[in-house]
Amino acid sequence: MTTIDAGFLAERYAAERLSDEDREEAVSALRREQAEGRLTEDELDDRLVQARTARTRGDLAPCFADLPESRVAREDVPTPARTSAWLVMALSPFAAVILFFATGFLISGGFAWSWLWFLLIPVAGIVGVALRGGPRQ
């Protein structure tokens, strides 16, 4: 089921075509807004016509432009913290290997202690989970 929110109506997706299910979800969302008192009957009728005839997400956006953003959890929308957490976790094994060999070859007796760099991998995982806002449900 599609959720009509700011992520769905983002400008970068404006040219994507709508499915019948998307249009029906938009109609349902508009009816909920009217039930909560944000739209009059006339406004609802106008927006329902516009929602039912919309072909792209961009055509649908004006129906929701002056309404408050949906109170849906924003789990699906990537944030900079989530993106950087993924990057840190993805690159930590490579960094550990590079540091392992650099320490081992550049410092006398370095291989005796260079294995400690591999502790970066679980630390990066812990940092990644913390940046993402906790474990996924």
TrEMBL record:
Pfam families: DUF1707. The chain crosses the membrane at residues 84-107, 113-131. The keyword Membrane applies. It comes from the Bacteria. Residues 17-68 form the DUF1707 domain. Keywords: Membrane, Transmembrane, Transmembrane helix. InterPro entries: DUF1707_SHOCT-like. This is Uncharacterized protein DUF1707. It comes from Amnibacterium kyonggiense. The lineage of its organism: Bacteria, Bacillati, Actinomycetota, Actinomycetes, Micrococcales.
